[in-house]
Amino acid sequence: MREENIKLDVVTWSAVIAGYAQKGCGCEALDIFRRMLVSGSKPNFVTLASLLSGCASIGALIHGKEIHCYAIKCVLNFKESGAGDDLMVQNCLIDMYAKCKNTQISRVMFDSIPLRDRSVATWTVMIGGYAQHGKANDALKLFSQMLLQKTNLEAAPNGFTISCALVACAHLASLRLGKQIHTYVLRNRFESVMLFVSNCLIDMYSKAGDIGAAETVFDNMTHKNTVSWTSLLTGYGMHGRGEQALKTLNEMRRANLVLDGVTFVGILYACSHCGLVDEGIKYFDTMKSEFGVVPGPEHFACMVDLLGRASRLGQAMDLIQSMPMKPTEVVWVALLSACRLHSNVEIGEYAANQLVELQSDNDGSYTLLSNIYANAKQWKDVAKVRTLMKKIGIRKRPGCSWVEGKTGTSTFFVGDRTHPLSQQIFDVLADLIGRIRAIGYIPDTRFALHDVDDEEKSDLLFEHSERLALAYGILITSPGLPIRITKNLRVCGDCHVAITFISKIIENEVILRDSSRFHHFKNGSCSCKGYW
């Protein structure tokens, strides 16, 4: 700016800061702000809004707090600034704290703004903050409050608000609420003018278990972009439709669409979960030379997962050692998960040690190692892992499953007897287990990872959360309608076998989403074909 003799006033400084912030260059934006202060130029509300956006883009919470203090002292509530200017900065502060994973302070700031003064942006940044940081229930609760409030009729949801709410529905696999929001979208004609709303609908339906509805949304779109195609492709992968995912990729190529890194994550994921090993290797090997996409850690993690599932652990190790960057936590977790699947203690221990060096606080990593030891009947090593977890303060997430009914969602934990219909649930489950034993089901006690006798292990398997959720689903769902279950962890191997048998004797399709993918159980078979 000095070389070009451009006048350095607040407008110039603010424009440069905004440019860096919009490109995600928060550090550079902060550096320009410091130079602005040294020059004697006084920032205004536009400067601070851009700067807070820069802090949010790089998760610079400490710097964001410093800007917050400066705003209180020098900008907010001053006579020369209007109420709209103050609200702009407050909205940016809510957004900054949320993107820096401090939704508690975001909510305090949100609540401090009177209901009549909250703009659509105020509601949207708070709902989006919840949705993007694992607080989907809070996001949907706030979205409901926004729809019901009558104090400020101008603060009606816009396309961005709708997208945030759909992200929350996708996270919870809440098809019922997702459909209600879709109805609101159709009534207010959002999807006809906002491409990203339709893209979010495809993603929501895919993750909520209705891939058919996702296809319908996609087919009815007037305009499609790379995100639209990638969302559908990824959905096919989640539902075990690898061939359709590959077909979609070929259609993208025929349409001359630019394939990006996200597209390749989707196709490698689909190949991994459908046993399309050779196809996955082919796309990984050619993604740079043919498509100009440089493989990142996420692509290597997908490949480790693909090779590991196929029992090619040696190749997976070779791939990790050839990585041009340091392997990330997700790469080692993929390898550890494969070792759990194929009972490889040696490589599993190696992967676990790498995670310890990375100071991973992921409880799932320790649980995987513990399960590897338990499967090998190395009970002393199981005890050591559990002691270590206790020592460093890592608690194992309890497995839970939830199922949607007509009026709400019911959640179940292992051995859960708190539900009002608990006795009926256990009676239905006991009857189901008795009937499938008669047609050949034998409990696989390897999945009851405790040092007890086989009879007690069988009892432990009986009370797993996904079975309780299924029994409840059978109680409340009419014959012929699908039962939709979501589990926060990977489905138990024995429960997978049991539900496959149960699908032979009930008239409902069972659609189960676990932490990795969807399983569609119908007529005694699963969509994963045993490859999961």
List keywords for this structure.
single chain; 532 residues; mainly alpha; 6-stranded mixed beta sheet; 26 helices
Shape: globular
Distance between the termini: 57 Å
State the low-pLDDT regions, or none.
Answer: 450-457
As an assembly, this protein is single chain
Overall mean confidence score, pLDDT: 90
Strand proportion, as a percent range, falls in: under 5%
Based on CA atoms alone, the radius of gyration comes out at 26 Å
Number of helices: 26
| Biggest sheet, spatial arrangement of strands | 2-1-3-4-5-6
Q: Strand count, sense and closure of the main sheet?
A: 6 strands, mixed
Give the % helix.
55-70%
Secondary structure tally: strands: 6
Structural class by helix and strand composition:
mainly alpha
Describe, in plain words, how this protein is organized in 3D.
Helices cover 63% and strands 5% of the residues. It is mainly α and 532 residues long. The protein has helices at residues 10-22, 26-39, 45-58, 61-74, 83-99, 103-112, 120-132, 136-148, 159-172, 175-188, 195-207, 211-219, 226-238, 242-254, 261-274, 277-286, 297-309, 313-321, 329-342, 345-357, 363-375, 379-391, 422-438, 454-462, 465-476, 493-505, and strands at 400-404, 409-413, 483-487, 510-513, 518-522, 525-526. It is globular and about 85 Å long.
